[in-house]
């Protein structure tokens, strides 16, 4: 038995799992038989898209990961929200200096959840807390390394900007995840990143 790359058709020994040329998962073949098309172990196994190195991550896992990260974002927002309430009360009582001070503190505290939202996918091994819980990660397709904080900022700022577009803006990125073969939204395409199952990652 040999392993065959489904993209470049290079043959490897059975103990090699990924192609060194394009990163595709190798498929077991019977070396004694002439085969023009590689056969999968399991007919229900997900198949890689031509020209890609990784499988599309589970949509369900991505949804749960996004939900968990959203809850963390909201929790980080609580201190800033409380301070802004104090600022409103002070302003209502005509305590302008006190209100201004509360506003400055509230803005500084708001930077914490904002930074989390922008850089969350650049933590550690390309995993936000939600993605880590769901065993997902963001990979930099240009380097085959985990997503950096710079790439995380780029992929997430695109989503933020899309959300500003009235009515349809907030739906564009989720639709891209659902409708594309690789599950890459506009932010991923701008940053050359992709969300994958951590078990699929190789380095």
TrEMBL record:
Main location as per UniProt: membrane
One GO location term (cellular component): membrane
Name of this chain's protein: RDD family protein
One Pfam match: RDD
Protein topology in the membrane: Multi-pass membrane protein
UniProt keyword terms in alphabetical order: Membrane, Transmembrane, Transmembrane helix
Signal peptide span: none
Annotated InterPro entries: RDD
RDD domain boundaries: 57-191
Cell compartment(s), UniProt: Membrane
Membrane-spanning segments: 71-92, 99-119, 157-179
Domain of life: Bacteria
């Amino acid at each position: 038995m040999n392993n065959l790359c489904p993209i470049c058709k290079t043959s490897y020994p059975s103990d090699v799992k990924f192609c060194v040329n394009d990163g595709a998962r190798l498929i077991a073949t019977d070396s004694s038989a002439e085969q023009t098309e590689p056969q999968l172990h399991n007919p229900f196994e997900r198949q890689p898209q031509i020209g890609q190195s990784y499988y599309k991550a589970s949509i369900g896992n991505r949804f749960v990961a996004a939900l968990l990260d959203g809850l963390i974002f909201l929790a980080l927002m609580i201190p800033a929200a409380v301070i802004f309430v104090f600022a409103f009360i002070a302003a209502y009582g005509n305590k302008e200096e006190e209100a201004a001070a509360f506003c400055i503190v509230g803005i500084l505290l708001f930077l914490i959840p904002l930074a989390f939202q922008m850089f969350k996918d650049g933590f550690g091994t390309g995993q936000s807390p939600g993605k880590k819980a769901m065993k997902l990660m963001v990979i930099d397709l240009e380097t085959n390394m985990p997503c950096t904080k710079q790439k995380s900022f780029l992929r997430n700022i695109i989503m933020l900007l899309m959300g500003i577009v009235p009515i349809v803006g907030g739906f564009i990125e989720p639709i891209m995840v659902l409708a594309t073969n690789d599950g890459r939204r506009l932010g991923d395409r701008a940053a050359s990143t992709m969300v994958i199952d951590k078990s699929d990652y190789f380095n």
